[in-house]
User: What shape does this take?
Amino acid sequence: MDWGMRNRLSQLIKEDGHCFFMPIDHGYFQGPTRCLEEPGETIKPLLPYCDALFVTRGVLRSAIGPANSKPIILRVSGGTSMAGKDLANEGLTTSIEEIIRLNATAVGVSVFVGSDYEQQTLLNLAKLVNECENYGIPVMAVTAVGKELEKRDARYLALACRIAAELGARVVKTYWCKEGFEKVVKGCPVPVVMAGGPKCETEREVFEFVYDGMQRGAIGINLGRNVWQARHPAAMAKALQAIIHKKADVKKACEIFNEAKI
Assistant: This one.
């Protein structure tokens, strides 16, 4: 692995081998998502706790200060919306020249395995890997499921993650599942980070699935709504950071959260 690729990955994945990515890219298909109407303001109190931001180029330019910024994972797929027929019908939105111009540490692209647009999105990933590897830029594949939440079982997730890794993704973002998540991780030869999915009902519920996933092999999280839509976002981020980087269990995370929210 070339120095540039190793350097960029080391910015994203810390010395303990773990990571906390903060996605604020939801607007690319959802529009002004609740609590993310002003993304720059939303993330200010959360930046001390996350390791990188997952963001589109538009929000990066308009809302993220370039001085002392966190490493950027640039969202480079899109072209659909919640108002359209199928969220899986994505294309690549950002050129390699633009990725380099914005000094992205990594890029992220969604793949929709099992959808009508499976081949299209997998070839999006392959094309992106072909271009980014030339410049030492890691690609994160996002195993998206669109509106079909019932696909989040271990068999499907293992299939999607392995295919993404086989096509050259350096990191795979996927969903946690209660049964068989360790098989998902074991079958993926590159690091796996957990997505948040729909907002959980309680803080403890978030801590439980994150802790469980870390115990079963994930290297970290890429959580957005369960952080910045929480009643106490900064306290939530601080508690999750403790699970990811300080080996806190669920009980300790709850204590950190309760102390920080006061």
Residues 3-260 form a domain with the TIM Barrel fold (CATH 3.20.20.70). Strands lie at 19-23, 52-55, 72-75, 77-78, 91-92, 106-111, 139-143, 171-175, 192-195, 220-222.
